[in-house]
Amino acid sequence: AGTNSTLAEPACAVGRVQLSRLGEFAARRAAIAKRYDAGIRELPGVELLAGTRGGDVHANHLYTFRLTAGAEARDFLLGVLIDSGVELQQRYFPVHLMPEWRLKSGETKLPVTERVWFGEQVQLPIYPQLSDDLVDHVITSVRKGLLGGDAGRAFSR
Question: What is the model's pTM?
Answer without folding.
Answer: 0.83
